[in-house]
Structures are given as C-alpha cells and as structure tokens.
Amino acid sequence: MVTTVAFYLPQYHPIPENDEWWGRGFTEWTNVARARPKFRGHHQPHIPGELGYYDLRLAEAREQQGALATEYRVDAFAYYHYWFNGKQLLERPLNEVLSTNQPDQKFLVCWANENWTRTWDGQERSVLMHQNYEDYDPDAHIEALAPAFADPRYVRVDGKPVWMIYTASDLPDPGATVAAWRAAAKRWGIEDLYICAMLARRPLSTDQALAANFDAVVEFAPQFYPHQRNLRNHLTLPARAWNKLVASKLGKWKIDHFNIYDYDKVVADGVRYNPEEPITIHPCVAPGWDNTARRPTTGLVCQNDDPAMYGKWLEHAVRRASAHRPAEQLVFINAWNEWAEGCHLEPDLKHGRAWLEATRDAVERGEK
Length: 368
Fold this sequence. Notes:
33% of the residues lie in helices and 19% in strands.
C-alpha cells in the first residue's frame, strides 16, 4: 500500500524572530490575507474554510488537521525543519506533536536547509539567518532530531527513519555529510537513516545523489519540470525595459511582473514522466501553485480550479510508486498547507474539501 506524504509548513504561529523581521504578530496568514487578484480570472485570496485562520500553538488545530488528513488518505505530514547550527525556527508545532502524542498520524522531517531571507527564495539577497556550513555539526543535528526519529509514528523505510534534505547541492561535500549523518545516527541509537535528496532548487542529479550515498530522491512539484516551456509573461517588452532601465535605478515605480504556467500542460508532462533512473525516485504532485501572496509584484502562478485534473496526476504518481518495492512506495504532495503559495489540500471557501476528496479518490484508483 502506498504512503502519501504531504509537505507541512509550520509558520502559522508567531515567533520572536518573525516579530522582529516582519512585524509583531506576523504569521503566514499575514501574507495570505493581503493577497489580491492580479489579472482577469486570478483566484486570490485563498481563504481558509472550516479550519479557519488557525494557530498551530493550539492542540485543537493540529488534531483537526490530523483527523482530516486521515479521513482523506493523506497518510503523513513532512514537517519543514529550520536548523541553523543549533538555532531552530518554527519548531514548536512538531515539538508539541512529539510531547503530546497527538495527532496520532505518521510524520517525517525535511530540513529546509536554505538561508532565511526577505525574498523567500533562499538566495543571498537580504539574508536574515545564514546557513553556515563551515560550523555545521552533523552529530548535534542528529541528536536534536533523535526524539523525532525514535517516535513510533515516524515514517520508515526498512525500519530506517526517512530524513529529507531540501537543497542537498548546498552541502559542501554531500557524500561526507551523508556518511556523518549515518555515523551520528548510530551513536544516538538509530541503526541507520533512509536519506533523501529533494529535486527542488539547484538539485543534485540522480547520479550525483547516488554517488553521495543518498538512498533516494524526491520530486518537488510543480517546479520539478524545468523543461516546461508554456510560460506566459504578462509584461510587454516596453514594460520590461522600463523595469530594467528606469524602475530598478529609481527603486520605485516597478510594473508588476507575473509568470503563468498552464496547469493542464504541467499535468500532461507529469503523467508522461516515468523515468528509469539509477536511484529510487519518489514522485510528487501539487494541486496548484501561486506565490503572489508572498510576491505581490513578481509571482509565479500555476492556477488550477479542477480537482479532477490534480487527481489524474496523483493517480499516475500512485501507480508509479506502486511499481517500487513495498517498503519504498511513497508519494509526496506539495502541500498540506502552503496557503501563501496557493498550494494546499486544506479546505478553502472556494473549493471546500474538493482537494481532499480528489486525493482520497485518486489514491484508491491508483492502488487498484
């Protein structure tokens, strides 16, 4: 049976660092609520439905999420984990899941190992928290995660906790780091880890991941399809020239610039994609994408208003995963609650539970 894993963003409660960087009381809902349509037919804002604008400090909110996920065959959450040489951000939700044993649902951890920046892209511009690999201590990192790895709800392959790295190519020596993680796990009573490199930004190639002794790679939809070329740009040539030659120098009067993908063509690429690679590839799908809530003048939109189209893609991913040996039948969904990226399974006012219903139905069809 396939295990479906949805990426889970924990930034729905205030923390002191976000208060300092973005303003008192900031959470991801701050971005979500301010979003506005940018062109004809643009679906913004994404307004949460029955769960409301929840606060992840509340056990009731986390338990409602777990109950919904279980009902609709979202088997596990992949919690984003923010670690900066001993300093953690947004760790409270997972810590409370561990301490309270609720919700009673599977989970794993994905290290979002990029710089924390004002531009939301992990690049070097306006860095708030720098990912300093020179001082990185693999043993201290695994020690911090050992309670999660030991939890009986943790997702495992062959008994090994699944440990995911968002941008493995940023590691100065991926092979040495993977070896250090495995050695550290043994020191903390964990026989081994099942370590995955994600095919997200600046990904390792599958050959590089295999050479570095990763166990598998994980797709990250919809950005995983870099060959997609049906991009439409809402900026005319004179407007682009204005932004480059005038607005950039003045620091103001920039004309909004949105790149738009056709979701049905992304799905068409996805269902054609069935690679034979030297390493296990865990498939990933997304119900849509729209980060204009975070990037109100330069967003990327892959809008989808058809749950059945998403279901078609997920069904294909389930069939791909079913071809793996039983222990490695994992399918990833981007995401459970990326509201500011227009990428969520949680109910909203426009679609209700449609994305969840499509998830359950697609998994059931794919497993037949």
